[in-house]
Amino acid sequence: MSVQRWLACFILVSLSSVAVWSDDQTSNQPTRTLLFSDDFNREESDESQEELGGTWTTSSATRANGNKQVDLRDNTLHIYIHESADHAVSVRHEIDFRDGSVELRFKLENAVDVLTLNFVDLKCKTVHAGHLFNVSMATNYVAIEDLKTGVMNLAYRDASKADRAKLDLKNLIWSKRKKFPLQLDSETWHSAIINVRGDTVDVSIDGQSVGSFSAIGIAHPTKTMLRFLVPNEAVIDDLKIYSFDS
Q1: pLDDT tens for each residue of 29-52
Q2: Where would one find the signal peptide in this protein (predicted)?
Q3: The domain 31-244 is classified under which CATH number: 2.60.120.380, 2.60.120.200, 1.10.20.10, 3.30.43.10?
Q4: pTM (2 decimals)?
């Protein structure tokens, strides 16, 4: 066989292999349905009030004496805690999926800023306030935490001091959390994708996988609300929420 014919056969086989690999990769990706999106390209009619639009709600009335903590500014959503608040700012929207993904852009302008995505089922009566699990993004780490079988489980939350000691509660709760170090530029917008499949959460930031964590609480069959929890400040934009088709 001539060198030219050998090269032609090699290239043909290589291209065929790539095509098969690509088809396999595509087939492994879940199909999905867009449930909700928001680009926040609007303004309040009264700048002194929270007017997020749609079915967005916040905790400002009950946790910050009605003071404004969420602002539509420059076509983005700015969240900042008021000095009178007794709890992190909670910005909420209904969702409805078992498995799905959340995509957004976010900016943390201060070293202490943290943006937490809190997945919730208010009908789950074994946990405080429906807390299932968190994905927290800071300038120097990402953390994923199972709340349903961890710190928000009522059996632990309401336990007496003696029972907490017997349960070795501190170590038990820390076993429900995984932390991944990273460094994020506070002057830059970042993109995040949080995929929830079965009992596993995968987090990617700026197109790079940060880490994953598997836990019982993540597998809870119904996630009916997403809360953005902000103890200091955070900015978000271009939010998309998908369900994965079974």
Answers
A1: 689 999 999 999 999 999 999 999
A2: 1-19
A3: 2.60.120.200
A4: 0.86
Mean pLDDT of 176-180: 98
Mean pLDDT within 210-231: 98
Q: Domain boundaries in the chain? A: 1-27, 31-244
pLDDT for 159 beyond 60: yes
